[in-house]
Inverse folding.
């Protein structure tokens, strides 16, 4: 049955078991060395953390203590020093502000916006060749209800209630003094009445009221037909030279900056000295002594709102806040904002708000005035019937007021006097009182409330450099 050539192989039980074990060993997978190493490393890390946790906490604490000790030791000489060098933080903020300001300085590029799908300049100013031959128009408004404005002085007889001296202004509820003359609420109401001849309080009430200017400066100011003005009291902001003027404007326009002695000293320390001719660059520097208010913001309202009192022969004025650099031709600005639009007053709209009541909330929130002062002002305005309308006479109610372009007419001068009296009576935030005066003096309608982008084209905004020092009385 079996072939004789076949070979038989006998396999013992022991050999069979050995082969089985070999097969099992071949199938068994080896563990990866990397996995074993990773587990071992983690175990060592955990053991070290458990072993040295106290040291790991102690070392950063020691480092922090050393840093604080060094920091205190470095600051203490500055704190003990009597010098007026600013703190490190203040210096860094100033450096950041100055860097931003330097980026805006001397820029002449136009500001544009899209109107009906077309990009246009915000300020449509005449080309240079036309500006050189631009004539100042002679304008007489026969329809104006106010023909003559008279300014009340102490020689007109004592007012009901008398007046406060400057030393009393902080102990009394009113800030009226010898510069302003006292004004009761009844007298305030009378001054809003429109007649052909109006008698009104408008600063410079008494010869002893302050805001003294030298005769030499007065003579120069009386020679100005058109003036661009600014001011910096209490050391305030730096003086930025105007740019973008035509040759015609250089011949016809005065540039006047009002300073006090504190600002003179501050600027001299920065190597900005008044020349023997009274000028720094294009600016004629008028140094004012005996400022009437302790609040430098109120002192600043005098050149801002009462240009017609300071420049009695000027026909036009342009006010520019000290934080800005005026960068357009003054004659071109008058043509674009007043003559072309048949306006007597041009002022920038407020960019963020339209209602005086919304602005009041913002003023309080930003700590720009005391809440109780703002509430007194709003309570009086509500009592007088000021509505919450966001537009008066078709114009936006709220103004930004850092640039004011105007013709000096009896009616516009009356408006500015009333506005000045409101900031003296209530808060110095003139944005709050502008809508009230505009609403109550309803006859002033030819106002050009130009948009924010036009204001940005008029000036390079530099921001406030330093805080003005309050006047010590």
């Amino acid at each position: 049955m079996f072939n004789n050539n076949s070979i038989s192989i006998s396999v013992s039980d022991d050999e069979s078991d050995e082969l089985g074990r070999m097969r099992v060993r071949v199938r068994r997978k080896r563990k990866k060395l990397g996995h074993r190493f990773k587990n071992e490393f983690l175990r060592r890390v955990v053991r070290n953390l458990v072993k040295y946790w106290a040291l790991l906490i102690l070392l950063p604490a020691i480092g922090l203590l050393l840093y604080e000790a060094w920091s205190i030791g470095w600051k203490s000489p500055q704190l003990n020093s009597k010098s007026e060098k600013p703190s490190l933080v203040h210096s860094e903020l100033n450096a950041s502000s100055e860097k931003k300001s330097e980026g805006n300085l001397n820029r002449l590029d136009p500001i544009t916006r899209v109107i009906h799908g077309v990009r246009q300049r915000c300020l449509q100013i005449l080309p240079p060749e036309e500006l050189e031959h631009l004539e100042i128009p002679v304008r007489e408004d026969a329809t104006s209800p106010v023909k003559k404005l008279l300014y009340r002085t102490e020689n007109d007889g004592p007012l009901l209630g008398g007046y406060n001296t400057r030393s009393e202004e902080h102990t009394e509820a009113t800030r009226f003094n010898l510069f302003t003359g006292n004004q009761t609420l009844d007298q305030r109401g009378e001054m809003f009445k429109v007649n052909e001849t109006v008698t009104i309080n408008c600063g410079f009430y008494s010869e002893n009221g302050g805001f003294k200017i030298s005769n030499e400066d007065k003579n120069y100011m009386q020679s100005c037909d058109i003036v661009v003005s600014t001011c910096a009291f209490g050391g305030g902001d730096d003086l930025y030279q105007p740019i973008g003027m035509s040759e015609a404007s250089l011949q016809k326009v005065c540039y006047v900056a009002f300073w006090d002695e504190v600002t003179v000293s501050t600027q001299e320390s920065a190597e900005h000295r008044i020349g023997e001719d009274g000028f720094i660059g294009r600016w004629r520097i008028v140094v004012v002594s005996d400022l009437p208010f302790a609040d430098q913001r109120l002192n600043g309202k005098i050149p801002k709102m009462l240009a017609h009192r300071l420049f009695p022969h000027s026909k036009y004025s342009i006010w520019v806040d000290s934080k800005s650099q005026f960068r357009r031709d003054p004659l071109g600005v008058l043509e674009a904002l007043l003559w072309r639009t048949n306006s007597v007053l041009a002022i920038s709209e407020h960019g963020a708000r339209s209602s005086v009541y919304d602005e009041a909330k913002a003023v309080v929130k930003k700590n720009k005035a005391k809440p109780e002062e703002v509430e007194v002002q709003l309570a009086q305005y509500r009592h007088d019937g000021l509505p919450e309308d966001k537009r008066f006479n078709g114009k936006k109610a709220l103004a930004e007021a850092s640039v004011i372009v105007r013709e000096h007419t009896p009616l516009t001068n009356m408006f500015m006097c009333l506005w000045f009296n409101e900031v003296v009576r209530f808060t110095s935030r003139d944005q709050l009182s502008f809508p009230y005066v505009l609403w109550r003096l309803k006859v002033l309608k030819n106002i050009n409330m130009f948009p924010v982008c036009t204001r940005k084209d008029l000036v390079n905004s530099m921001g406030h450099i330093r805080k003005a020092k309050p006047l010590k009385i």
The chain has 16 helices and 16 strands. Confidence is low (pLDDT under 50) at residues 1-16, 18-24, 74-98, 159-172. Residues 297 and 428 are 7 Å apart (CA to CA).
